[in-house]
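Thread amino acids onto this structure.
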């Protein structure tokens, strides 16, 4: 189990006060890492940080407000951490916007025909540009020090298209049916491109980069949606939020020392049928 030991490593997680960000934090804390939780939402960040803080981790759990769309903000956080003697060895690009389906508006804004350039720009800026900027700042420093790991959190929608039947609402005309927006697919496929690019870019400087593509996590979604989705999954269920911890531990530690540029899809088997 030595290869999983992260006691001398420091990790930074973006979007870490969300559903999975907290799980990634717990996964790395369990292996002894110092963890810097970051998020643009200060209130949820502080709440998540306080909920995880205990006597076992109080000297190695930190939180910083950080907006992944601002290179200046990311650089400021990197500088502050360095001043405190913390060099980031592991970066998890996890922040994303998952726009909620709205069914009460006359114009269904999620549909491609109506999708606004503002929404496109904003969502790409967080999910894709943000990952590039964080990799630029923290990855460059890892390369200078000759060691590091970048993990991009993609989605099963990095390998297949959304099944829009999942989002269909009874009684709505076809042009009013909500859909998973185009941005989600573009961002998640784009993250795999970024993963491969970074994996070769710094391969000779000791920095590895991989992606993790989770399937849908059960988080109180409605019965109809869950039933439709689980029919598409051989294991016949959605994931629990803690079921990606093992993969995060593997991908962020020396247990995966020879893995580089890969996309690990964990989806109950949905993508193989
Ligand atoms: N939950 C799932 O079922 C699921 C499935 C597949 C993939 N994913 C992916 O996992 C990741 C985490 O998902 P989640 O369910 O925890 O999402 P979430 O919405 O719960 O958390 C996302 C976090 O990102 C933060 N964020 C948004 N904009 C930001 C910005 N500009 N800078 C910094 N932080 C910002 C939010 O404040 C939030 O805390 C995402 O990349 C998501 O696409 C989730």
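Threaded sequence (273 positions):
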């Amino acid at each position: 189990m030595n290869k999983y030991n992260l006691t001398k490593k420091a990790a930074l997680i973006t979007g870490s006060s969300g559903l999975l960000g907290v799980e990634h934090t717990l996964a790395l804390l369990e292996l002894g890492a110092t963890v810097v939780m970051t998020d643009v939402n200060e209130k949820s960040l502080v709440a998540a940080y306080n909920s995880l803080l205990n006597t076992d981790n109080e000297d190695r759990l930190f939180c910083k407000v950080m907006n992944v769309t601002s290179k200046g903000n990311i650089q400021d956080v990197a500088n502050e951490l360095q001043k405190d003697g913390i060099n980031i060895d592991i970066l998890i690009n996890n922040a994303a916007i998952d726009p909620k389906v709205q069914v009460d508006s006359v114009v269904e804004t999620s549909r491609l025909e109506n999708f606004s350039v503002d929404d496109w720009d904003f969502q790409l800026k967080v999910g894709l540009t943000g990952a590039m900027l964080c990799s630029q700042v923290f990855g460059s420093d890892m390369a200078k020090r000759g060691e590091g790991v970048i993990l991009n959190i993609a989605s099963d929608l990095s390998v297949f298209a959304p099944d829009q039947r999942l989002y269909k609402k009874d009684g709505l005309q076809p042009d009013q049916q909500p859909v998973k927006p185009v941005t989600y697919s573009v961002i998640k496929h784009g993250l795999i491109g970024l993963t491969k690019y970074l994996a070769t870019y710094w391969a000779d400087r000791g920095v590895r980069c991989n992606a993790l593509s989770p399937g849908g996590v059960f988080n109180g979604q409605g019965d109809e949606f869950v039933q439709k989705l689980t029919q598409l999954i051989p294991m016949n269920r959605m994931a629990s939020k803690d079921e990606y911890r093992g993969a995060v531990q593997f991908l962020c530690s020396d247990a995966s020392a020879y893995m580089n540029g890969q996309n690990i899809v964990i989806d109950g088997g949905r993508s193989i049928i």
